[in-house]
Write a structure and sequence with these properties.
- Helix content is 54%, strand content 0%.
- The protein is mainly alpha-helical.
- The longest helix has 32 residues.
- The model has no long low-confidence stretch (mean pLDDT 92).
């Protein structure tokens, strides 16, 4: 009786399924494939891979195997966040021009980018506490809390907190870029202004509010959204935009939760490298809602 775990022998050339040329047979290049790439644009050149792939510089000495994972995890997050910022700014420009339809594709893309961001927490979660403790000390006060792009996304979505600007005073360029977004209307502000231009009864105090402050839930805004949700076919673009914003809000909450659970799994209740309380600090923001009326209106329907 043959062992069920023993690999079967490859078929001989004279047997059904056999390959007369053997396993070493190679497929020839198609005639049109470019092979002479001297002085021409290449994949490596277009993507600047010489810079990208040399940007991982572990500081542990001797280098700890898992520090590369930690660096790449955060670098790829920053690349995805750069794309989110690019997309959110485009969406805001379209809303300001009274064109919601292009935003549907944009915000659908943002939603999928967000899924990439929270799915990759599962990769970092393979880092055990003992492994992380071998190189955590090299981070000094560096922390994801200091991510300029993360803070830009928070501000673009309306979670304004002026105290966060102080974290970036050491970097004049970053501080100026964040201040500009902080002092400008958020995506939600632009959407509510669009609704007002379309004749929806958005209260004046909402339209004229100080945009450097977090948006506070407003009964008049809930009522405006209630009319949109009761008659979606009469207000289809606003209805669809509202649902796309709910998608983004929900994905952000999932990202925060996965962040919390990954940190808890790796460092427990230690303080963060940036000086925060760690898990307790992250727990405070898990339930934050960017667009409160879009969730509250569901209770009213």
């Amino acid at each position: 009786m043959s062992c069920p775990h023993k690999p079967t022998d490859p078929a001989r050339p004279d047997e059904p399924g056999g390959d007369p040329a053997g396993a070493s047979r190679t497929r020839p290049l198609e005639p049109g494939v470019h092979t002479d790439l001297a002085d021409r644009l290449t994949y490596t050149g277009y993507l600047h891979l010489e810079r990208l792939l040399s940007a991982q510089q572990p500081l542990s000495s001797p280098e700890h195997h898992d520090e590369l994972l930690f660096i790449i995890q955060h670098q790829t997050s920053e690349l995805w966040m750069k794309l989110i910022i690019h997309e959110l700014r485009a969406a805001m420009a379209f809303v300001a021009q009274d064109h919601l339809e292009p935003c549907f594709k944009i915000l659908a893309r943002v939603k999928h980018i967000q899924s990439q961001l929270y799915d990759q927490w599962s990769v970092l979660a393979t880092l055990t506490p003992s492994e992380y403790s071998e190189f955590r000390h090299v981070l000094g006060p560096a922390s994801g809390f200091q991510s300029v792009q993360y803070r830009m996304i928070e501000f673009l979505l309306g979670n304004k907190d002026g105290a966060m600007l102080a974290v970036h005073r050491h970097d004049a360029e970053a501080h100026a870029a964040l201040t500009q977004i902080f002092e400008a209307p958020s995506l939600y502000d632009e959407f509510l202004r669009f609704l007002a231009r379309r004749g929806h009864a958005i209260p004046r105090e909402v339209l004229d509010r100080d945009v450097t402050k977090p948006h506070e839930p407003n009964a008049g805004v809930i009522e405006a959204f209630k009319k949109i949700y009761v008659e979606p076919h009469a207000h289809w673009d606003a209805y669809e935009m509202a649902e796309k914003l709910v998608d983004v809000d929900e994905q952000f909450s999932i990202w925060r939760f996965r962040h919390l659970k990954t940190v808890q799994r790796i460092i427990g209740w230690k303080t963060g490298t940036g000086g925060s309380s760690g898990v307790p600090f992250l727990r405070q923001v898990v339930d934050h809602v960017f667009f409160p009326e879009l969730l509250q209106v569901r209770t009213e329907l």
